[in-house]
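Re: the pair you flagged

First of the two:
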Amino acid sequence: MRFNTYKPVLSQIKKNKNGSFQYSEKITPFLMLTPVLAGLAILVYFPLCSTITLSFLRYFWNKPQQPIRWVGLKNYIDIFTDSLFWQSFNNTIVFMVVSTSLTILFGLGIAVLMSRDFPGKSIFISLILLPMMISPVAAALSWKFLFDGEWGAVNYFIGLLGIPKQAWLADPRLALPAIIVTDIWLYTPFVFLVMYTSLQALPQEPIEAARIDGGSGWQIFSKVILPLLAPNFLLILVIRLMDTFRVFDFIYVMTSGGPGGRTETIGFLSYERTFRHFNMGQGSVIAIFLLLVVLSLSWYFIKTLQLQLQEQAK
């Protein structure tokens, strides 16, 4: 049916003889969506439009005596020519790639091990899922104490092996890997849970057919199980890439971007420019850049996931 055959929405509202409004069934979905659309407008679209507007202004919110001036693309030029921005971007990419890869690898490996029956399996699964009960800030604070250069438990245990103490969070070479370890510890249980439930829900017919045909354990896993798990992999990949690219809480609690900016990330840099330097224009530019990258990554992998699901449906 062509669009021009529909009546305008407002024409579906009529008055009764007593003066009250009578709504047609066609307008009911629009009325039910009104609270959601109003919430989106207030909580999403208005802040987004305000951020875009601020990115073209010179505005320091701790200096009300200075007038707000239109500066055009100057904030964008200042940010994209700032060496600290590109260092933060490089740190973010390293954090995202390493943490996401290892989290998925460890989560899948543990899920495969736990898919077999053995005594005490439920206890092991409960212990694996324990980190999921902890908030990211609490986990970051706990690991900050564990990585303490003088009294941390990590240095104590490596000292038993004859390895000298390390200043984990103060050493430019070790600070970012230490934060990556914290992120992997916290989010591997999530990946494990998704992979474990996916393995339990796999159809057994293709696996049994491959086993009857004489396939080895690795061949069955790589040629049958992994392709069936591909949609779940892509879903986890989208979630973890978004989480790791906008990481903030671990950086804020454990290192505050130090030492020497070696753990500075895009998310933390946006916070720093906005709430420490009070430069709303540059902070808005970084926030918009962060949004565009996350949207691009999400769009790409969601399209890939849709194509994967269409191929499996054929």
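Second of the two:
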Amino acid sequence: MISIQQPHPGFGQPVLPERFGRKVTVTHAAAIAVIALMAFAAYLTLERAIVVQRAATTAITLTDRQRMLSQRIASLTAQYALGNIGVRHDLQATIGAFETTHWSLVTGDPKAGLPSAVRDPQLKAVYFEGGAPLDAAATEFVTRARRIASLAPQDPAFAANSAPLFSAAQAPLLDALDRALAIRHNEVNAQETMLRVVAAAICLLSLVALLGAALAVFRPMARRIIRLTREANELARQATLDPLTGLLNPRSFQDRGAIEIQKARRYQRPLSLLMIDADQLNMISSTHGPDSGATVLKALTSSFFEGTRISDLLARINEDQFAILLPETSCEGAEVLAERLRRKVSEIKLTIKDEFVSCTISIGVAAAEKNASFLWPTFQRADDALSEAKVRGRNRVVVAAAA
């Protein structure tokens, strides 16, 4: 209880209790109003940051997909050049997916909250300015790829078009896509930093105000901040891991793989790669329902975790394809592990809608070249070995010849 003492005689006018009460009420109301405004500002700021970060994460995923599609186009072109006519349909479909993804990034997608690259000055410079703009490089890449897909491998014009395509897939196009990815990653990092700064400032100011007059206002606001921060962290996690399996996504696998290939080169240590394909996954999904495919992929992921080491890098490359990078492992050791994984998976019996479902995998094995600076040649050789395993009838391991 607040008591008001009478002032010493002769000391101005007395302070009236009613006046003091009004002052306290106004002070409390103002404090509560400030806290309410802070909470509302925090809500708007963090919600906006979540929207922006979600759009940035979508852009990162699409840009990374575009990188993988460009490499797949190059790989399918190489197979087509060797006379594998059956890949022509896949080549045309992959070209279409690459072009669609590129235009989504350039023009934006309002439904996905994806802004146009033109709205960002840095991205606009990468896509449309400078000596090697990404938009022109991608357009030329698609045009050349479509021309190749329309030619027969023995056509003299085939080699004239395929050589520039392979060159673009290895350097100019990838370099431009990497610059775009770096800008988008920086945007995500900036948003995360902003979220942390905003959250810290709001918490500090709220505590000061709450200690003064409105403790009850703090709890709901803190809960909101925590929830939004967790959502932001979850978005950051999704930018690194595959959401279904929890394995590395292609971009993260590439980044980690680049580190491992440099370590292997520096210390002259062996490094091997497994490319794994889930056999007949589409048939399982069509026979037992769409959820059955996810069940199989999760079961495969569990088997891979159980059969590998903590130091091994596991990634989901696309819908039914995985990659396992094996540091300190020779080609012979990788082959032994691949056979063990293949047998382990073939023994899996899943029950889906009261029916037993079995699955198998095909594996391509390749060892990194001595003094290799990039993982891509090993990746391509392992992928070629995987394609051979599927051609031979699946559920088998094929080792790529030494480079």
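DSSP finds twelve helices and seven strands in the chain.

-B.
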